[in-house]
């Protein structure tokens, strides 16, 4: 659109020059004749008119030239303004489409996780079927071994019965191990299911220490099994004799998982900068207070600056790059703690540690 | 007292027979097994009125699911109690089963202590 305009403007300018030039060429001989005439004193009035007319035409030409160049300058300035405007708009569009892309990536990630969750749920349920047999048959066999042992007692005791008793002891020990580990696998499957959608979401008296032990372990192994695993020293110090607390175990396990995952991510960032000199440490403690129980999850990661601290619990706020964080982990954590009439506090020193403190009242 | 256990996994018979050995030995309890929903319905239809008083059924079975079997039994033999035994103990299945008239909902791995209590309660009545 611009190019033809400029071109036509150049053409008109050229035309004005050509016309003035032609006029001059045409008039020049007359002028010369006039000068000669003046000298020869033929027609003085006539020739001075010609001079005035020529100067007039030249002046108009110059005036027009100045006028158009001024106008062009103004147009160019206007155009520059438009260009800058357009560039900033383009930058805005680029930024928005970048954000859009990040959100789309996040959605895809969420979708993948959701389908993974469904898959996990399916697998987890199916694992319960063989576990049913493993656990119950081993339980039965333990009873049988006991019964056999009693019968052996009634036999005439000799070297052979002694051997049988020893072997039965071993068999019983093995069966106990099978039952113990089958129950352990059942526990893992149950916690996997809680996270897909299994549980019924009811608050029940819960052994918080057991829950923490299980889920800190699960979070750690989850992190190790995922991409970019880091070495972490895990210190779990749980106060003995902690009373059972009314908790929704499904929700509260998510709190522990989220806080651990955040700690691992933060410490990974610091480990990438500091390298081998840094030993990531996660410590999780429980404490029995007068009217509440306290859970402290602390990492020695990069810490949280004061101006960010207030935003941490806001939905969709994340310090993680690109699609790594949804900005929902801590906000969900906070909601769950509030749902238990508890308090979530953040204490941190940049470069030193981040400490999440949860207080859950004993009576809700 | 006759109870019917429905599960597509055959090992269930071995497990239940051993777990309820004492009760079946004393003659108070008779266990019969069906390995599909259709087989269960034909067993229940063999005598009129049916000799079975309680059905324990798995949910996830090929062909007729446990929940479909539950509906059928409740329609045709409303006097028979039905409880579900499933690895799928999620609230969805649970609610569906209870809504369709299931008496109890047991999850796998089966806690035979609670199952025994349930059966003993029934034997007292």
Could you give a quick summary of the protein structure above?
Chain A is 68% helix and 12% strand.
Keywords:
heterodimer, A: 364 residues, alpha+beta, Heat Shock Protein 90, two-stranded antiparallel ribbon, 7 helices, 7 strands, B: 125 residues, Rossmann fold, 5-stranded parallel β-sheet, 5 strands, 45% helix
Please give a structural write-up.
The complex is a heterodimer of chains A (364) and B (125). Chain A is α+β, with helices and mostly antiparallel strands. Chain A is 68% helix and 12% strand. Among the domains of chain A are: 2-95; 206-364, Histidine kinase-like ATPase, C-terminal domain (Heat Shock Protein 90). Chain A is built from 7 helices and 7 strands. In chain A, the strands form 2 sheets. In chain A, strands 2-4-5-7-6 form a 5-stranded mixed beta sheet, with helices on one face. In chain A, strands 1-3 form a two-stranded antiparallel ribbon. In chain A, helix 4 crosses helix 5. In chain B, helix 3 (37-45) runs parallel beside helix 4 (66-76). Chain B is globular, with a radius of gyration of 13 Å. The N and C termini of chain B lie close together (11 Å). The A-B interface holds A 121, 125-126, 128-129, 131-137, 139-140, 182, 186, 193, 197-201 and B 9, 11, 15, 18-19, 60, 87-91, 94, 107-110, 112.
CATH architecture of chain B: 3-Layer(aba) Sandwich
Intertermini distance of chain B: 11 Å
Q: How much strand of chain B?
A: 15-25%
- Give Rg of chain B in angstroms: 13 Å
Order of helices and strands of chain A: HHHEHEEHEEHHEE
Average of the residue pLDDT scores of chain A = 83
- How is the main sheet of chain B built? 5 strands, parallel
At the fold tier of CATH, the topology name of the domain at 206-364 in chain A is Heat Shock Protein 90
- State the low-pLDDT regions of chain A, or none: none
**Widest sheet: strand ordering of chain A:** 2-4-5-7-6
Rg measurement of chain A, Å: 44 Å
